[in-house]
């Protein structure tokens, strides 16, 4: 969080939180009431002040007010930068992951130091270039076999990072929040 946020929290400690206003779509775009936020100044304010609470609810801390974020997919959406490195939609670099899965649609889910993340869509070539399996290169048949496994199963695939490989499991899209510890649609808890 930025310093101005902490100063505002000290000055106004009991501002009620907002629910249902802010969102993050599956492409890593911020939304307000379903409309994409396109102003760079607003995005640059949200990104460094985005975090999770102890219940797995992700929020934007806007000074003294916390705005909980409805997630279309994961709390963090991964992209590749110009050098082929992974970065979160908030600009944090991801060099390694603690665990990884493929969902039934072929999207890559990672547990990173920054939080649960997904890479899907335009940057899936990054995954395909780094996939390893019992046969190299990984072909469509081997990938289809992995995607056909039940959620929770271990695949024969791994993902190569600069410092080693990460075994990949299978995880259904709907099982991701529970498995990775996040809430897609945050609600107030009693007493909030």
From TrEMBL:
Pfam family, one: DUF2944
The protein's name in its UniProt record: DUF2946 family protein
Species of provenance: Sinimarinibacterium flocculans
């Amino acid at each position: 969080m930025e310093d101005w946020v902490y100063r505002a929290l000290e000055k106004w400690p009991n501002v009620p939180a907002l629910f249902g206003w802010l969102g993050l779509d599956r492409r890593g775009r911020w939304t307000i009431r379903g409309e994409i936020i396109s102003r760079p100044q607003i995005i640059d304010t949200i990104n460094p002040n985005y975090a999770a609470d102890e219940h797995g609810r992700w929020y934007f801390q806007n000074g003294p007010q916390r705005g909980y974020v409805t997630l279309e997919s994961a709390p963090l959406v991964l992209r590749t930068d110009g050098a082929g490195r992974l970065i979160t939609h908030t600009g944090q670099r991801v060099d390694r992951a603690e665990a990884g899965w493929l969902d039934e649609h072929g999207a890559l889910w990672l547990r990173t130091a920054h939080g649960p993340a997904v890479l899907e869509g335009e940057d899936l070539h990054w995954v395909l270039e780094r996939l390893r399996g019992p046969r190299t290169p990984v072909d469509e048949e081997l990938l289809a076999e992995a995607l056909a496994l039940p959620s929770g199963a271990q695949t024969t695939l791994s993902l190569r990072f600069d410092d080693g490989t990460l075994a990949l499991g299978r995880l259904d899209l709907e099982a991701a929040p529970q498995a990775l510890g996040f809430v897609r649609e945050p609600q107030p808890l009693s007493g909030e």
